[in-house]
Batch of 4 targets.
Target 1
Amino acid sequence: MNTAADWLGREYGPGDYVLYSRSYGSGSSQMLLAEVREVRDTTVIARVLKRSRSDYGPDTGLIDSRTGKSVYYSKIHEKDPAHYIHKVTGERVEDDKIFERDPDWNGPEWAAPYLRNHKDYERVPVTYWDYVVRGPSYTTFQIRDNITKVDKEYAEASISQESL
């Protein structure tokens, strides 16, 4: 079992809770509370339990229940891809065809009218095979200098609060 040390010298490994500060190029940052799953030579794989910013959606992903691995929204796991259905006629239009422009248009390409009025269509979301389920989301921390180990009591108390 591999372990690593946080910036304070405290050792952490699989099953431990950590805080991770993630920065973005736009100058914004986000704090993640996570449970360590695996420590590798230069990275840490962890399950995100809570984020300081909630606008990033749920911390779950699509998992292949046969293997336990993430499917990363791969098309090979789609039973029926997302598409559009005409509200009156029932015509099916694939996702990438709903905004097709008129090929016979003589003006500039960017000004060509759409072939279909997308307001007349209803979007049908993708359907996955039965073995694809929602499960915990794992992320890879590539910069280990930002990791701080926290005790279990802190982690459990933080999860029940609104903000991190």
Target 2
Amino acid sequence: MTNSEIYQNQKSSGYTVIELAVAVGILTTVIGCFALTMRGIHEMEKLFQMETKAIVLLNNTIERLEAQEKRDINSVRWILNDEFKKNSMSSGLTPICKIENAKILICVTKKNGKPVAELKLGR
């Protein structure tokens, strides 16, 4: 058997080291992209859950305010904080109630101070 026959015999029986290295590299890249995509989806899900909690909190506050005759800043603040405690939404959210441009601003913010949802009450 000559050297060329031995080489052809080895070539037909399996993959070369270079082919295996390229395959492993491509597989690693695909798995890395998948992991990054899943991480992004998880972050988006957390954000959507936070926004939903904030909107529910504001909605419940407004419903309770509609049933009251008195709608001053203190009653709005009390109802907002009460709804916040009832719904146990302390997962990184903070309720804020203040007067801005002669309107009552009800806001739910993240830990970094950025608003998740806000609502202005006024005439």
Target 3
Amino acid sequence: MGGYHYELRSEKRVPYGEGAVVIRYVTETMGLPFLDPGTSIVTLEDGFGGETTIYKARRIFQEAYPFVSDVKVEGEAFEWTDGDKQYHLRIHPLRGTTPPNENETAYPSD
């Protein structure tokens, strides 16, 4: 009964550029899964195999929030609510840039 448990309860995909915004409601817990109130996860899939988690929140026990709903996508922007807050996100792709090579660090050093 114990251990890690993951179950996809629902999934909604909204087209976004060459990929999609994916809204998932999951059970993700260590221990007994029937005690898990559920987790909302919003990810951005780029259409080339990349996936970025931009929001993840576990619902408060015996409460109706946070639970992602009212997702709207327009151009580079999208918004959603979670029953407690409203979120607005605008993404600007960095086209023409190259990733750091193996000799460069991803973060500046002090």
Target 4
Amino acid sequence: MSKINTHKSRIMFGKHGPSPDNPRGTFLTRVPPGYLSWAVNTNCDGPVKLESGDVVPAFLAAKAELQRRGERLQTLELSAHAVDRFSLRYWRLFQDERKKDEGLFSFMERLLDQAIGLVQEDDRKGVVNVDLLGVRWIINFDMVIPVLLSVKPRKEKKCPTEKKEN
């Protein structure tokens, strides 16, 4: 199929599909980018009706719409907690290891991608801890895309035990 024109294309399924309030479905150009990313990352085959009348799988139309918008396809996610914790604990690592003109979020995405690469395909389920550059990356693989839940030192400091008095 040639390049998909998303102008006047309509979602024909799910929460953006036809409804009593919107019997023809939502224009693809009005669908939030997160929903489009979901459609691409899950290879969603729900129908999207193009202006020409052709029907294509949602993941193809969503990918074309993200490209039209100039959006980057989200393939991993960083929680706000993880970004906050990293910025407070590993600022020096960021300053020392970042590329020129690379911000904190992009730096963390790059390192998270490296950490994910260290996990064998068969082990990518549930919550996994990965050690990289002195940081333990806590990644949830049970979502549509991997999610960084938190970061912590490789060896978490234990609370000192109280001395027993005789």
